[in-house]
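for the writeup, i need someone to sanity check this before i put it in the appendix. the sequnce is what the collaborator sent (i think, or maybe the updated version? ugh). structure was predicted straight from it, no edits. if anything looks off just tell me and ill rerun, i have time this weekend
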Amino acid sequence: MKAVVLKTDNQIHYMDAPKPALRHGEVLVQVKACGICGSDIRYLEGENPWSQQTLGYVTQNPDNMILGHEFAGEVVEVKDKKDEYLLGKKVGVIVYNTCKSCEFCRTGRMNLCKNTKHIGHGAGWGEMEFYPGGMAEYCQVWSDHVYPFENSTFEEVSTLDFVAVGLAAVSKIKKVFAEDAVIIGTGPVGLSIIQLLKLKGARRVYCVDILDYAFEVAKEVGADGVFNSTEADVVPEILDRTDGLGAAMVFDTVGTEETQKMALAVCKGEGTVVNLVCNTTKVQYQLKDFSSERSIVSVANASDDLFYDCLKMLEAGRLNVKPLITDVLPLEKALEGFERLMNREETGAIKVILKP
């Protein structure tokens, strides 16, 4: 089969790879759509974002890692008789599996498990000739990690991995209804959070970015105001629009020292800053930044139930992810897709989806 493979030269290669051989408990998904995530770009740049986000430390990427963890497709082969009902089903995919035995797994917090196998991230598989991912014609998936759907497109369902991360971030907030929010970064996750906050009854949602290209999409999906932080000091602007108090919830999808400090500056007393990016950036805080009981929390992955909630909302027409999908390319043009995202200021790309 054809696949997009990351090698140790930190280059992606469109090349032949072995068609996956199923083990018990697995099904074979013929991939119909796979999104390029910001973490895929970080892999291309030599980072391992999965280890930083989940394990809290830096690890090296293995050779021959098939990228792609945002995908949907059709089940074309099963290993076990009990899974035959899935044959021919259109499915979304939860891309990580956990150990089921650690403290986090036993207490229902599987997204914090340190012993995972993660499709598209090369984690937890041991030594393999090729590590599975969704940027390929086929991908093996655990049969209890595929979710059938009917009313949505493959492209739409492929977005649910990052939409579910947005829902995980929103779920960190105790009270959303009638409260103001600020989202720093108008990438796919930030744009998803806008809609999710509105569905939960947020009063006003403001977005901040250094690029204007996604602002129209942000307003289309529900943003009440957008601010370019390179053109003006956005802190007084946001404070002015939030009754001088700031926002009860601030979501940082960028993860720099500047955005972290901005997030705290526009955060209301007793408010929460939700950090969605874990990297090696060093941030210097002053204790007064946490005055009035402000707090910072982080998000690690999204749990299965949140993915399923997003799928149900999408199927019911409550979520609109179409404005986020700006480019659809054949799999063999994966490098072009990466380049479009890496030069998004010129191309206007938000979510690029590859189709094998």
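The chain has a mean pLDDT of 94. DSSP finds twelve helices and 18 strands in the chain.
thx in advance!!
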